[in-house]
Amino acid sequence: MSIVLITILTLAGLGALAAVILYLASQKFKVFEDPRIDQVEEVLPAANCGGCGFPGCRAFAEALVKADDISDLNCPVGGAEVMGKVAQILGKEVAKSEPKIAVVRCNGTCEHRPRLNQYEGAPSCAAASALYGGETGCSFGCYGLGDCVDACNFDAMYMDEKTGLPVVIEDNCVACGACVDACPKNIIELRKKGPKNRRIFVSCVNEEKGAVARKACSVACIGCGKCAKVCPFDAITIKNNLAYIDDEKCRLCRKCVAECPTNAIHELNFPVRKNKTAVKETATEEK
Amino acid sequence: MLKTFKIGGVHPHEWKLSAEKQIEVLPLPKRVSVPVTQHIGAPAKPLVKKGDIVKTGQMIAASGGFVSANIHSPVSGKVFKVDQTVDASGYRKPAIIIDVDGDEWLDDIDRSDKLVKEITLSGEEIIKKIGEMGIVGMGGATFPSHVKLSPPPGKKCEILIINGVECEPYLTSDHRLMLEKSEELIVGIRILMKALNVNKAVIGIENNKPDAIKKLTELTSKEEGIDVQPLKVKYPQGGEKQLIDAITGRQVPSGKLPIEVGAVVQNVGTTVAVYEAVQKNKPLIERVVTVTGPAIAQPSNFLARIGTPIEQLIEAAGGLPQDTGKVIGGGPMMGKALTSLEVPITKGSSGLLVLPDEAAHRQPVKNCIRCSKCVSACPMGLEPYLLMIEAEKEMWDRAEEDRIMDCIECGSCSFTCPAHRPLLDYIRLGKGKVGQIIRSRQ
């Protein structure tokens, strides 16, 4: 009987001692963590996509809590809604961010841009672009091997088999920028989603002189500058034989689209226009 | 027992179709395009503009830094424009395009065949001259020779190794040079020995070129300090580090240059170019190019001016065969498939290989079964299958630990892989990325 008693008492004593040590240790080595970090993390979408520039949502939450001014931090996945909730928790001001979307700036489909050779190496755009200038005469355009599609965590991209170009699914894209980083040719850009998803962009990144670019691809930007001349808002600049539309300045008037001789400027989600001359007439009337 | 390097290596079929063909001088093209980046290092800066009249041998672009090289006009005529041209990689690079008119050389270039044996310049003057004449490594790596000949302070060169291995299948340009310009080669070696201040030089030749070994052994028997070393046939023996291992038994430490073990390696073509530059005042404006392939009518060795479109060389060798699948600049192991026939010959073009369609395609890729054939084949003692996975998964830190930067891109791994995996493709990608990371750290 006494053996049982001694055993119980010894174990209970040891247990009590361990409890005391553990309690003291936990007090001594306590790490204070702002409870708001957990609250903020709760609100974030938990996609861990890295679109904010931080390694995962937890790190972003820590940064949000730590920073005095969070106006330059943004969760592209959650957008204004989530950032509003974050601001509420932290009592800080957020900048109003306009939703963005990934835009593929190449329209070199098989018919526009004939294939001159055949690539059989490793199926990776990064490997191919490190090796050579691509299957067509345009060494700036899309390789069509899908590094961007592989990088996308939101099922927002697929390769169109017919055109050989990646397509962005507008509803799924959260503008995390993973595809932008994955593209070795800097073809994909994050641009303003635009009112009613309407946007205008130059669908070409070829910096060759006009004749060379045109020879390689029938819808290449040849840097003629017609669009820049017609733009009433100074939104278009020509650099290295390539037009670029600043989405901050662009007011979606569509004059440049009608003017472009190679159809390199694309408009998305606009209602069907009547015809080119009619647009030009209205354009002159407005002037 | 013949010497060779210790680890790895493969034995591709030799296919030296043009070994018996004498070097022919290729007629001048109508127009040449001379890229300003024909070497490793900074691009040269063009000195001429549209409409300028240039003479053969005149400097048209000046070295753009210490690791860079001058470029000279390979022809005489009028500069058509300073623009861009497609290079071997399919990217457009700045180039000087010249319309050929006659063939008027600069007066101070000695064009006679007379052998000039006496070396009048001092070591330093020789290195300066080599730099001025735009000599780069002609084995394919195109590293500026004057840089290689100026060892960093504190390092002393003990042995000069002349690379006459030509381990790439099909290529015969160095082989022909050794046979046809043997005396010039020996003088070239003497010049390099003087520049480096060494008294020992070894010419390494694989024993599939017995005629070259015989001829050079005869010539060097009278020369003190120059030896010929026959080597066992094994790819990639022409790699600098492999050749040093084969001849001296020393291994260059990881990430270090050959000078670390007291060796400097120069290619046969470079040595002959050094002879011409120093003794004849002739800049590097032409080179021997092998044009070959299973279906080429007359596999040949041409002496072609830099900037000649490859189309013209193929035409001179009997034209492009009907079922051509691929034209490779260089040999089948390390060469690059060309995207256009307008690509010009540059200082590093050792050959053109025309492959029929059936031989031009890759086999379907299967899974890696860890057979480790690539590991046994790698001459640098790396684990290619592992490096490929690491590059595929973007594990750059581990790739760096596994010495990805030591890869010499010889392609032995891809050649030997029974599953036809694109090992070198990914390793090359990884090398690029890891190299960027290392540079950004500095």
Automatic annotation (TrEMBL), chain A:
Region (Hydrophobic): 1-26
UniProt binding sites for [4Fe-4S] cluster 1: C49, C52, C57, C75
Domain 4Fe-4S ferredoxin-type: 164-193, 210-241, 243-271
Keyword Translocase: yes
Needed cofactors: [4Fe-4S] cluster
Source organism, top-level taxon: Bacteria
Binding, [4Fe-4S] cluster 3: C152, C173, C176, C179
Alphabetically ordered keywords of this record: 4Fe-4S, Cell membrane, Electron transport, Iron, Iron-sulfur, Membrane, Metal-binding, Repeat, Translocase, Transport
Name by which UniProt lists this protein: Ion-translocating oxidoreductase complex subunit B
Lineage, top ranks: Bacteria, Pseudomonadati, Bacteroidota, Bacteroidia, Marinilabiliales
UniProtKB/TrEMBL annotation, chain B:
SUPFAM superfamilies attached to this UniProt entry: alpha-helical ferredoxin, Nqo1 FMN-binding domain-like
InterPro entries: 4Fe4S_Fe-S-bd, 4Fe4S_Fe_S_CS, Ion_transpt_RnfC/RsxC, Nuo51_FMN-bd, Nuo51_FMN-bd_sf, RnfC_N, Soluble_ligand-bd
Binding sites annotated in the UniProt record for [4Fe-4S] cluster 1: C368, C371, C374, C417
Record's bilayer topology term: Peripheral membrane protein
Record's signal peptide: none
Superkingdom to which the source organism belongs: Bacteria
Cofactor binding, note field: Binds 2 [4Fe-4S] clusters per subunit.
Cofactor(s) listed in the protein's UniProt record: [4Fe-4S] cluster
UniProt domain 4Fe-4S ferredoxin-type: residue ranges: 358-381, 397-427
Assembly, per entry: The complex is composed of six subunits: RnfA, RnfB, RnfC, RnfD, RnfE and RnfG.
Family, as annotated: Belongs to the 4Fe4S bacterial-type ferredoxin family. RnfC subfamily.
Function according to Swiss-Prot or TrEMBL: Part of a membrane-bound complex that couples electron transfer with translocation of ions across the membrane.
Protein name as it appears in the record: Ion-translocating oxidoreductase complex subunit C
The species this protein was found in: Thermophagus xiamenensis
Taxonomic placement: Bacteria, Pseudomonadati, Bacteroidota, Bacteroidia, Marinilabiliales
